[in-house]
């Protein structure tokens, strides 16, 4: 990956430039695949609910963080219904501004709107039961992803979880020049998670997505 992002600065600034041009809508967030939003949310909910609840080793529901939150699609339909408070972090201020209206009345349970790239973002220590990272790890270099996951681990409450949901390539690292990102295969994702000192508690593939898009996997990490 080092070779791809020879110029790390342009890797990040090109991505910021790309997202600045994207309309602040669900379709914009999903690159024209707005129609898959419900399938995506239902898959995520079934995955997450395996861990939540009362009892030994269960993950709490007081506070969640939505990473690369955009206009708050996941916050609105997945996280706010399950958690008391949700924080949003995204690199594009316009999306966060839009989230304030898009989230409607439930938006008053948002704790913080944070405008920051994940490569620089330091989540508050011990604040979160769940840190949800979806369709955004491709915007981080390998080293930055490892460092970010380490910071996420410190930001968890007892029995907290980091969830990564993202595209996986069949083999190797596939660059996307359009939005200045990469898609990694599962083996590479696993090795980066290991480097960050996290273990995979559970993993599954999101089903029922269109055939022509990448496979999407969900990994619960602690």
UniProtKB/TrEMBL annotation:
Q: Which InterPro entries match?
A: MeTrfase_NTM1 (IPR008576), SAM-dependent_MTases_sf (IPR029063)
* Localization in the cell: Nucleus
Listed EC numbers: 2.1.1.244
Q: Which domain of life is it from?
A: Eukaryota
A GO biological-process term:
methylation
Which portions of this protein are annotated as coiled-coil regions?
A: none
Query: Which keywords label this protein?
Result: Methyltransferase, Nucleus, S-adenosyl-L-methionine, Transferase
According to its UniProt record, this protein's enzyme class is: transferase
GO CC terms: cytoplasm; nucleus
Q: Where does S-adenosyl-L-methionine bind?
A: 68, 73, 90-92, 118-119, 134
Name a GO molecular-function annotation. Answer: N-terminal protein N-methyltransferase activity
Give the catalytic activity: N-terminal L-prolyl-L-prolyl-L-lysyl-[protein] + 2 S-adenosyl-L-methionine = N-terminal N,N-dimethyl-L-prolyl-L-prolyl-L-lysyl-[protein] + 2 S-adenosyl-L-homocysteine + 2 H(+); N-terminal L-alanyl-L-prolyl-L-lysyl-[protein] + 3 S-adenosyl-L-methionine = N-terminal N,N,N-trimethyl-L-alanyl-L-prolyl-L-lysyl-[protein] + 3 S-adenosyl-L-homocysteine + 3 H(+); N-terminal L-seryl-L-prolyl-L-lysyl-[protein] + 3 S-adenosyl-L-methionine = N-terminal N,N,N-trimethyl-L-seryl-L-prolyl-L-lysyl-[protein] + 3 S-adenosyl-L-homocysteine + 3 H(+)
Family assignment from sequence similarity: Belongs to the methyltransferase superfamily. NTM1 family.
| The protein, known as | protein N-terminal methyltransferase
Origin organism is Dicentrarchus labrax (European seabass)
Gene field: ntmt1
